[in-house]
Amino acid sequence: MAHYAFIKDNLVTEVIVGKDEGDGTDWEEYYLTKRPGQDACKRTSYNTNGNEHLLGGTPFRGNFAFVGCTYDTSNDVFIEAKPYDSWTLNNSTWKWEAPLAYPEDGGDTCTWDEAAYQEDNSTGWVVAE
Fold first, then answer.
1. Of 16, 79, 107, 115, most Cβ neighbours within 10 A?
2. pTM, whole model, 2 decimals?
3. In a shared domain, residues 26 and 73
4. Are 34 and 80 contained in the same domain?
5. How far apart are CA 43 and CA 11, in angstroms?
6. Residues 31 and 63 in one domain
7. Which of 49, 29, 50 is nearest to 40 (CA)?
């Protein structure tokens, strides 16, 4: 089973389960005819995250698409929305990265505080309460 993302103005508006490729049909074009008003339909891989295939296969389009993420036509990848102004896009993983490394002792309890970072760019990660 394959997944397909519908795109309008470079934003993913819907993701569906569809037919696997291999029979000669261009399923991206086929599904696009089923959603008038969309700009494109692109296959997306459920097993791709951070430009790595989770099962050891070939990564496909950077990340699995979901509603609200962006489709970058120049690089043919899906990218989630930028979470904070200070974060930058890693062009290898197609993921956003904080300007400071996650604290080694942070476990799962730290969250990013953009206001703290803007006030003092040596801080940003805070322990969640």
1. 79
2. 0.90
3. yes
4. yes
5. 14
6. yes
7. 29
